[in-house]
Structure formats: structure tokens, C-alpha cells
Design goal:
Oligomer: single chain
Keywords: Membrane, Transmembrane, Transmembrane helix
Strand content: under 5%
Shape: elongated
Main location: membrane
Membrane topology: Multi-pass membrane protein
InterPro entries: MFS_dom, MFS_sugar_transport-like, MFS_trans_sf
Largest sheet: 2 strands, antiparallel
GO molecular function: transmembrane transporter activity
Helix content: 55-70%
Length: 562
């Protein structure tokens, strides 16, 4: 009785699984609000240096006064205003007139972090990403040591504490420290829950159901984030709302069951059986005690046959054997390229000729279609083909935009920019989510949490370049798009060297990971594979993983499609 079969008896597509999908959707929603908070609190509204003669004038009149100074208008201090005769002061501007976009008072406006002090907000953003690096690594390690559920809760509570403390920041030092604490949850608060949910789902729920749910919840988060800030009217109130959303995750401890597969890798078979019994009860299933006993014996037998003590396996073990090393390094490279592209495209909401709040909303609208497209494509052509096509098409769109922007006057056309920006946002959302799921499936369960943490750690490091890529576009309009095209086309080619995971039984042990996908060609897509050519006499949903080193043990006992 292996894990797949006992989970099927307990229910792998029942009430508990749908509850888990809904809870993952809530995590996706809160993660999106938290992720974009760093952008939203730092919006810089249109502003001009304060002068007493401009107090009673309209914003249009003030803009006309400062128009002769061009790009320097926001930081130019006037000493005298006599009709059209303007006298520039030699003193630095200390006070500004702000034209608040939809009435939202951002952190930069409230603390006057503009002009010569604009660097302060960027330092805070850098510390946020530094926190993301530390949190990704720390909670990834904790996920494999103390369990997925506790790690998910701790990560979200760090986000709560960081956002809540930030609302009391009045200087750069406080702001930087608090944003670093908030950043600890920037990635870990989602991917750990994603891993946990995948480990309990039937294959039929891993495509359209989970992708569609995530698409809708990511969309809601991206829609709510900017307009919640408008409703709040102030960045401090907005961050308080973001913090409270993450505080709710603490209640997951009373609902979500720890990963049974993780417990098995820690030799805690009894704990795994206890979780499976709870799931069976929740799903209204009656499972005979003899089935649990057969599962217990199978786990013990597999443990004796294992050459590697999985409970002590670490990230370095992913690099010890050639096939698993190739897969792991490719996963890291692909996710780095995809993450850098995702952060650059999704965060580039200013400079498109429209309010950033409106651009955020337009970007959010394309997220649900990307989720449903992902689900449909994955079930028909597999993970590998879906990832390859998404990256290839987005890369070609980015290349076309770069060529268009190289022509004179193209950067001033709002219609042209949006006609490329929206499909690219759809494509990069699809690329990022399918790559995230694909990476989770390729790494063995025994080191999955730490392995995915290392992958996200590398991706967070690559994302440091995102602001510079966006800034490069202000100097050379076509440069950002052409660089993104190169990154995505490279990632699409690397994807071809990975094995397919759709309709396959995925690896739990390191030996399984080494054997997984051996012999597959670069063009071995799931849609071209004859499913009846899988391992003889096995269900189409399974693919028996052959052992390495010439051993021939019995059928793997605890491997499950996660």
C-alpha cells in the first residue's frame, strides 16, 4: 500500500482538498497585497517646490509656471514669481506642493522623500529584498525541519510584524529595519503553502482547479491592493490593513494538516498515518485499519531499502549525482531568469502615460486568464510544453516591443505601450506560475522545501537587477524590452532540457530524483507521448521510477504525485 493508494482511499479530491485550495487562494491574495505594498507606499505623486504665491493656484497653473524647467521642475525652488519672470533660488527646496493621485498620500509624500532625499525610499526597498533573501532561505530550512505548517505561519507573522511596525517609522533607520522584517515573508509566505497543498492533491486538481483558483486570487489581490490604498487614503492605514490580512494565517494551525510525506521522510510514519486518518474523517471516508497497517509496513520496508538516510538529506545532496544535479541547476537558472523578468514587467507601472493605480488594475485583469490558460495547457500538453510556449511567446512579444520602441515617437504612444504591456503581463504571469509549480514537482520531497527555498533565494537575488532594468528604459527606451527578450528566450531553451512531470509519479527520495526523466529527449512533450507506453500495466497517472546503481527493490512505497 503506497502513499498514492492510501491517499486515494482517504480522499485525494474531497472536501479537505478543496478547503486546501481555498486556503491557498487566501494566501495568494494576501501575498499579492503584501508584495505590491512596497510599490504602492512608494508612489511619488506629481510635485513642485512650494512657494507662497502658488498656494491658491490650480495644479494646471502651477505646472505651467514650472514648465520651462522641464525635468528639473519638481526640485527647482523659485525665489520670485513676477508674471512670466521667474527668479530661481540658490537654496534647496524644503517643502513641496503635491498633486495626490486619487487622494492617496504615499510615504514619499508624507516624509518628503523626494528630490535629494529620494534615495531613502530606495534604501528601504533594497532592505525589503534583503529580507526576502533571508526569509526565503530561513523558512525554507525551517520547512524541512519543523514542518510546512509552522513555517508558513511564522513567515506570515513576520510579514504582519514588519508591516505593522513600518506604520510607526519616522526616519530612514526605522523604515529600513522594519521593511527588512516585512521582507522576510515576501516569498516564503506563499511557496511553502503551495508545496503543502500540492502534496495532498490528486493529479486532476493540480491543473485547472488550482491554476484557476490562483489566477482569480492573484487578480483579486492585484485589484484590491491599489484601490485599498486609495480607500485608506494614507500609506500607514494601508499597511495596517495588509498586516491584519497576514495575521489571520495563524488560524491555519487549527485547520491545515502537516505534510504526511514530509513526516514519512522524517521517519515519523505514525504521525503521517494520524494526518491521513484526519483527512479521511474530514472527507467522510471509512478506511480499514488493515490498509493503514499495510501502508505502515510498506514505509518501513522502503526505509530499509533506502541507501540514503533521507531525514539528513540536504541541498548539497541535489548536486551529488549527474542527472539530479543537471535538473537542479536548470531549475535554478530558469527560475532566476523568469523571476527577474516577472518583477521587471509587473512592477513597471509608472511611465506608461496613465495613473499607476489604473495600470495596476489593467495588469490584474489579465491574471485570471493566465491561470485558466495554464490549467488548460498543462492538462493537454504538459508542464514542459506550457512553460516553453509561455516563455517563448512572451520573449517574442518583448522583442517586438523593443523593435517598436527603437522607432522615433513610439514611447509616447499610450495605445502602443499598452497593446504590448498587457499581453506581456499575461505571458509573464503564466510563465512564473507554471515555472513555480514545475520546479516544485521536479525536486524530491525529502529536500523539496529547502530546494525550493534555494531556488527562490537565487531568484530573489536576480530580482535585485529589476529596478535597474526599469531605470535603463528611461535612458534607452528599447533596451529593457530587448534584454527581457534575451532572458526569456534563454529560459525557454533551458526548459527543453528538463523532463516532463505531467501524469508522472514524482520523486520522493534522492534515488528517485536521480532516476527521474532519464532518457527523455529535449522534444519529449507529454502531448506527444503515448500514455499506454508508460510502465506496463500501470495506471496512466503513474510512472514507476527505476532505482539507480542497478538495484531492483520493490515498488516504491511512499512516492506520490505532489
Amino acid at each position: 500500500m503506497d502513499f498514492d493508494k492510501i491517499l486515494e482511499k482517504c480522499g485525494n479530491a474531497g472536501r479537505y482538498q478543496y478547503l486546501m485550495i481555498l486556503l491557498l487562494g487566501y494566501i495568494a491574495f494576501t501575498t499579492t497585497v503584501h508584495y505590491y505594498s512596497q510599490n504602492i507606499i512608494g508612489f511619488v505623486p506629481q510635485h513642485w517646490c512650494y512657494h507662497e504665491q502658488l498656494v491658491d493656484r490650480s495644479f494646471e497653473e502651477i505646472a505651467a509656471v514650472y514648465a520651462p524647467f522641464g525635468k528639473d521642475a519638481s526640485c527647482t525652488r523659485l525665489e520670485k514669481i513676477e508674471g512670466n519672470n521667474l527668479t530661481v533660488s540658490s537654496k534647496a527646496c524644503q517643502r513641496w506642493i503635491y498633486k495626490y493621485d486619487y487622494g492617496f498620500r504615499s510615504m514619499n509624500a508624507e516624509l518628503n522623500w523626494v528630490c535629494d532625499d529620494a534615495y531613502k525610499a530606495r534604501i528601504g526597498q533594497s532592505l525589503f529584498f534583503l529580507g526576502s533573501l533571508l526569509g526565503t532561505f530561513t523558512f525554507g530550512m525551517l520547512g524541512d525541519r519543523i514542518g510546512r505548517v509552522r513555517a508558513v505561519i511564522l513567515a506570515n507573522q513576520c510579514g504582519f510584524v514588519g508591516d505593522f511596525l513600518t506604520t510607526y517609522a519616522t526616519n530612514l533607520v526605522q523604515f529600513a529595519i522594519f521593511r527588512c522584517i516585512s521582507g522576510l515573508a515576501a516569498t516564503a509566505n506563499y511557496y511553502l503553502m503551495f508545496i503543502l497543498v500540492l502534496e495532498y492533491l490528486a493529479p486532476k486538481l493540480r491543473n485547472l482547479a488550482i491554476s484557476g483558483t490562483l489566477g482569480i486570487c492573484f487578480c483579486l489581490g492585484a485589484l484590491v491592493a491599489p484601490w485599498l490604498s486609495v480607500l485608506a487614503g494614507n500609506w500607514r492605514i494601508y499597511l495596517t490593513c495588509s498586516a491584519l490580512l497576514q495575521l489571520v494565517v495563524a488560524l491555519f494551525y487549527f485547520v491545515v494538516q502537516e505534510s504526511a510525506q514530509w513526516l514519512i521522510t522524517r521517519t515519523n510514519v505514525e504521525g503521517a498515518i494520524a494526518r491521513l486518518k484526519h483527512i479521511a474523517h474530514f472527507n467522510g471516508r471509512q478506511v480499514p485499519a488493515a490498509d493503514f497497517e499495510a501502508f505502515r509496513r510498506n514505509c518501513i520496508a522502503k526505509r530499509k531499502l533506502s541507501n540514503q538516510p533521507e531525514q539528513t538529506a540536504g541541498i548539497i545532496d541535489l548536486l551529488r549525482t549527474p542527472n539530479l544535479r543537471k535538473i537542479s541547476l536548470l531549475v535554478v537558472l530558469i527560475f532566476m531568469l523568469t523571476s527577474l523578468s516577472f518583477n521587471t514587467i509587473s512592477r513597471n507601472v509608472e511611465g506608461l502615460g496613465m495613473s499607476p493605480f489604473v495600470v495596476f488594475s489593467l495588469f490584474a485583469v489579465v491574471v485570471p486568464p493566465s491561470g485558466f490558460i495554464q490549467g488548460l495547457l498543462q492538462s493537454r500538453v504538459g508542464r514542459k510544453a506550457t512553460a516553453f510556449l509561455a516563455m517563448l511567446c512572451t520573449g517574442l512579444l518583448s522583442c517586438a516591443l523593443g523593435v517598436a520602441l527603437s522607432t522615433e515617437g513610439a514611447h509616447s504612444s499610450v495605445t502602443l505601450l499598452l497593446s504590448f504591456a498587457l499581453p506581456m503581463r499575461l505571458g509573464i504571469s503564466l510563465s512564473y506560475t507554471v515555472t513555480s509549480q514545475y520546479a516544485s514537482e521536479l525536486l524530491p520531497t525529502c529536500v523539496r522545501s529547502r530546494g525550493i527555498a534555494a531556488v527562490h533565494l537565487a531568484a530573489a537575488g536576480a530580482s535585485f537587477l529589476s529596478p535597474y532594468l526599469i531605470h535603463l528604459g528611461t535612458k534607452l527606451a528599447a533596451a529593457t524590452s530587448l534584454i527581457l527578450a534575451l532572458l526569456l528566450l534563454t529560459a525557454s531553451f533551458c526548459t527543453l532540457m528538463l523532463p516532463e512531470t505531467n501524469n508522472r509519479q514524482l520523486p520522493i527520495t534522492l534515488a528517485d530524483g536521480e532516476a527521474f526523466g532519464k532518457g527523455e529527449s529535449m522534444l519529449s512533450f507529454d502531448c506527444w507521448r503515448r500514455h499506454d507506453d508508460d510502465v506496463s500495466k500501470q495506471p496512466a497517472e503513474e510512472l514507476k521510477l527505476q532505482p539507480i546503481n542497478g538495484q531492483q527493490p520493490a515498488k516504491p512505497a511512499t512516492e506520490a504525485e505532489v
